[in-house]
């Protein structure tokens, strides 16, 4: 299956696509199998084993509560955040969940078995769910891998991602194939991606769903700019977006382009503060990197001629182009911090955003490819070392910095004619290989870098 733009941009909850959204989806798949096989009423016990990075940073990423809610039948796309809090409070008080919403099972976060030192061969984000009868017999068991961006692969089930069939003509799995396709058929990158999406749904549906994604992104940033106080966890990180918004709004009531960089920073900050507090979020392509694409889209809509003239069409072209670039990272490398470090999350998002903006600025497909390449080339080696296992430091500011990098990459590419020495395919392969060589300390385990050099008791920001 080719990767769909709706695989990369999906609505969920914070703070992590791989450690919150993915585990909740995995628990949902497990429950679906129990229900589909008519087994759920025979279950008396559920055992949860977490391995590798899920075990190492699950506590800071909300992994265990996400699994409990997933086992009850909640989905990250639809659960309301206040409902989530209410339900978790009840589970913690009772020490019980309602499996599939109907079978009472004794299970809490502390019952889950954590094995941070055990890395399963297939992926560092792994979890095994097992259901037992009253007599102790295994009713159903499966192992799930949360492979980044909320994608989940089950050991025994077929891949259910919703992308189009990639066998037909008109599909691309590399930047070289994408460029050849655009040149052969006279397409922009967004048109090539739209054609791929339209194998499974109408163009009208694609446009409608992309505008919904945009609306959720905008609501998320508005929420972020309206809330103050401290983010969850013991880092004591104060939310900054609301205060910044109030001051910036007063300084720049006319939205002068001279303040563009400040607004871009603010959007990224607001989205990532919402993510860190477990709010409603769009993976782009992950939660930790979710602020970059909304921030650069904000720039495209507010400060480019195309965005000012037709915001809806600009949104659709931006997200399709970013999705086309993101699909290459998903296909050819990884968007999982636990697999390749932060270069796979924030680096991929910056590359996607740079490509999207380059098209909106009037770039040719080769300039789009160049912009995406520049943004990743200068993200190579970026490690994942979140302090306290929380998606806060360095994640929140890193999104703002990388949104700026994406805008700069797009503007640099537009100054050239699209010819350049390092291809996007080469830089994607370099990112993958660098990630494979990277020490596990720097791959979402919070055992290296800032995570060990900064005390979690330090008051930041
Ligand atoms: S450091 Fe990067 S990859 Fe790691 S949690 Fe933060 S945003 Fe995600």
TrEMBL record:
Its EC number is 4.3.1.17. Its cofactor is [4Fe-4S] cluster. It comes from the Bacteria. Residues 4-155 form the Serine dehydratase beta chain domain. One of its GO terms (molecular function) is metal ion binding. SUPFAM superfamilies: Serine metabolism enzymes domain. Pfam families: SDH_alpha, SDH_beta. Keywords: 4Fe-4S, Gluconeogenesis, Iron, Iron-sulfur, Lyase, Metal-binding. PANTHER family: L-SERINE DEHYDRATASE (PTHR30182), L-SERINE DEHYDRATASE 1 (PTHR30182:SF1). This is L-serine dehydratase. It comes from Mycolicibacterium porcinum.
